[in-house]
Each structure stands twice: as structure tokens, then as C-alpha cells.
Request: fold
Amino acid sequence: MVRLLLMKILNKSGGKQRAEHFSFDAEIYDIYVLKDAQGQRVGYELLKRFVEQCVDHGYQSLLVWILTVNPYGRFYVRYGATKVEAENTTIGSGTYEETAYGWKDLNDLNGQLMEISL
Reply:
């Protein structure tokens, strides 16, 4: 099942960075790991495959937005993401704060992720 999730994730879960006022060229739009699959390296595998595909497509940097109250933001920080900015966004009828995290050098992140898998 994990292999099915990993196939073609660039087109499904991210791609070209959408906000033009940031100096990142790729963005994770949405990658979620179900509670039952957490702690089984699924998030790591998804991030690793996504980064590999970004590098293959010539992207050099990466941005991801998460809800600020989401405790899983530390997942990205664990792999070297730095906080870029926080701003409010409207989802449905509510307003929420989102925080952007980013990596300026995808080759460095890719190398780090490859070392972990050894």
C-alpha cells in the first residue's frame, strides 16, 4: 500500500511554488499520513520520494505550509526546514494561522534523506 501512495506524488501533492513573493521554487501542497501509519516511516518515505522527484524536475528549493497549531510541524524541522513566515488564511468559514517552512537547498535535503535511508 505504501508503494501505491509513493507513485507520482509530485503531481498529486505538490509542484511549482504558488506564492510568488517567496524565493522558493517548489511547494508541498498536501501530504498527510493517517494516524494508523504514523511511526512507520511513511512520512519520511513520502518526503524523500517527493524531494527526489523535485530534484529530478530541476527544482532547487522547497516550501511547505502547515497550520501553526499542527504539532506535526516538527517533522519538517527535524529534517532541517526553517520557519519562513506565518500568515492568516481562510478555510471554509474559519480563519487560521499557517506557518511556512522551507529548505533553500534541495540537494542538501536530498543528501540528508539519502544518508538516513542507508
